[in-house]
Amino acid sequence: MTSSSTTPWSLYGTNLASRFLIGSAGYPSPQVLRDAIAAAGAQVVTVGLKRSLAAGAGDNGFVEIVRASGAHLLPNTAGCRTAREAVVLAQMARELFGTRWVKLEVIGDEHTLQPEPWELLDAATQLVREGFQVFPYCTDDLVACRRLLDAGCEVLMPWGAPIGSGQGLLNPYALRTLRERLPGVPLIVDAGIGAPHHAARAMELGFDGVLLNSAVAQARDPVRMAAAFGHAITAGRLGYEAGVMAPQDMAVPSTPVADGPLLIG
């Protein structure tokens, strides 16, 4: 496990050591998924509800793999287009999987898979009232994020870039603003991460975790890529905790300049 050296944190009162949340879709085999979860050191794994329910019994093997790994299951309403659809799916997940956690996705655009802010807020409000612990997949809009917090969400999952695009952090300014304006709120960058350095950058900005799927599942070697992301996330968080130096507009000598001899020891 690569993430245990960073400061422990919690999501809805559940203590975690790893800051790497990983998806379970698109792996070449169940064994590769098992090995990738282990290599990542992930303690939270998402499972697409529509995919699971399509299997007929609500558990097509993915849930077994997650539970056997010891990770926490985070059901996902991916594919929903309305608040009503997402709420019904979340209710089914609670009955099937016995968890109040739900990663809430309500998509408003087919091209970018951008969250639909009004339907997302409506669904989050309903689910919080029903006792769910909601992880909303949202944009990096500060006002929209505040409305989700007002609705009772305790965690936010703003996108870095469109889902599966691998573009990294398209708007670092907006993400940095979220971190500065929402101190104390667990923030997890979700979607668009394509390379380990993207994840490290998100953590250096002060985000609490990273959730990704495609960058690992579609890699030539998913297990090694999962390990690479685990190390990058740990490195980025440690850098943030240690204090990343501020950029300078001009050169600053690393060795002091003096007229006389300088003892270095």
Describe this protein with a few key phrases.
265 residues; alpha/beta; TIM Barrel; globular
Plain-language structure description:
By secondary structure, this protein is an alpha/beta fold. It has a single domain, classed as TIM Barrel (Alpha-Beta Barrel), CATH 3.20.20. The chain contains ten helices and ten strands. It has helices at 30-40, 49-54, 62-69, 83-97, 117-129, 142-150, 172-181, 196-204, 214-217, 222-242; strands at 9-11, 14-16, 20-23, 44-48, 72-76, 101-104, 133-138, 157-158, 188-190, 209-212. The strands form three sheets. The protein has a five-stranded parallel beta sheet with strand order 5-4-3-10-9. Strands 6-7-8 form a three-stranded parallel beta sheet. Strand 3, helix 1 and strand 4 (44-48) form a beta-alpha-beta unit. Helix 1 (30-40) runs parallel beside helix 3 (62-69). The longest helix has 21 residues, at 222-242. The protein is globular and about 75 Å long. The model has no long low-confidence stretch (mean pLDDT 91).
